[in-house]
Amino acid sequence: MEYKYTSRSIDDTMELAQNIESEKLPQMVICLNGELGSGKTVFVKGFAQALGINENITSPTFNIIKEYSDGEAPLYHMDVYRLSDSVENIGIKDYFNKDGISIIEWADLIEDELPEKRMELYFKVIDEDTRIITI
Predict the structure, then answer these.
(1) Do residues 78 and 87 touch, judged by C-beta distance below 8 A?
(2) CA distance 135 to 72
(3) pLDDT on residue 60
(4) Are 109 and 32 contacting, i.e. CB atoms less than 8 angstroms apart?
(5) Average pLDDT, whole number, for the chain?
(6) Which burial class, exposed, middle or buried, applies to 4 when counting CB atoms under 10 A from its CB (0-12, 13-18, 19+)?
(7) What is the pLDDT of residues 24-36, one digit of tens each?
């Protein structure tokens, strides 16, 4: 099933993330795809805020994985944009079996490594403020 959501602001994108967070499950994997600046990290901020995570959420582009454990469930925030080595070498698949939620930016770059059960969101920039998010 495909659902399209029009975000007209950062607040809209964060609200969508908070609504999805309310339906979270252990071992949930959320895959985010879209061009640079399309709102992927904003989505993660909204999701983390709804989990009760108080840390500042930034894209883990150079770290690849950031773990946040101070919310109601662990959050594993991944950004595989700069991943040049094999995914197997860094243990991304191990996170899919933990009880937390994995959110992966640029997930289409590691599609073969992703679990079959996952939620995929595609962010498309329409203009400076507007995004179409396909779930």
Answers:
(1) no
(2) 24
(3) 75
(4) no
(5) 92
(6) exposed
(7) 988 999 999 999 9
The size of the chain, in residues, is: 135
Q: Which amino acid is at 5?
A: Y
Residue spans of alpha helices (H) in 6-39: 10-21
Q: What's the token pair of residue 94?
A: 């191990």
E strand or H helix at 65: strand 65-68
State how far the Cα of 98 lies from the Cα of 78, in Å rounded to an integer. Answer: 14
SS3 per residue for 79-128: ECCCCCCCHHHHCHHHHCCCCCEEEEECHHHHHHHCCCCCEEEEEEECCC
The neighbouring-strand residues paired with 33 are 122
What predicted TM-score, i.e. pTM, was given to this entire model? 0.93
Give the pair of three-digit tokens for residue 111.
């599609």
Q: What is the pLDDT of residues 35-57, one digit of tens each?
A: 999 999 999 999 999 999 999 99
